[in-house]
Amino acid sequence: VAFVAQLQRTLLDIHALLDYVEILYPLLASLPLKPVHANPTWIGFFTRNTEVCESLYFAGVLVWLVHDEEFIPLTMNIIHPVQLTFPDNIVRAMYLESGVSKPFPSIFQGPGGLLCHYHMCWHYEGTLTE
Fold first, then answer.
1. How far apart are CA 103 and CA 107, in angstroms?
2. What residues of the chain score a pLDDT lower than 50?
3. 3-class SS of residue 127
4. Of 55, 52, 64, residue with least CA distance to 27
């Protein structure tokens, strides 16, 4: 099962990279004047940067801008503002041992990006017979 899961994750990574190279990168290289229809097969993107938000919006990527309201430009089209919530009660309830929180160990600390992605992927080191 672990081998199949690792293969699936690797194939999904390749598919995402191909989507980026074939679809998204050309749109980001020369942004259209009007937003492109969003691709319904993409999950979307969370960002704190308004310039990145605008670029991805015009390229047809679903974008969630995580920002304080007073810092959002008046020209930005906000469809539905939401209150940011943290599921502390859910996370803590799942990882309590004798009343003490035992979260997963930290795999990577630092800025996000490709390097973070590769450090967070643990490869299966077993054999197919296991």
1. 12
2. none
3. coil
4. 55
Q: What is the pLDDT of residue 85?
A: 73
Amino acid at the residue 122 = W
Q: Are strands 63-65 and 45-47 parallel, antiparallel or unpaired?
A: parallel
Residue 117 contacts residue 17 (beta carbons within 8 Å): no
The whole-number pLDDT of residue 123 equals: 63
45 neighbors 28 (Cβ within 8 angstroms): no
Report the C-alpha gap between 125 and 123 in whole angstroms. 6
For 21-34, what is each residue's pLDDT tens digit?
999 899 999 988 89
Q: Tell me which residue has tokens 């679903």.
A: 62
Residue 56 CB-density burial (10 A; 0-12 exposed, 13-18 middle, 19+ buried): buried
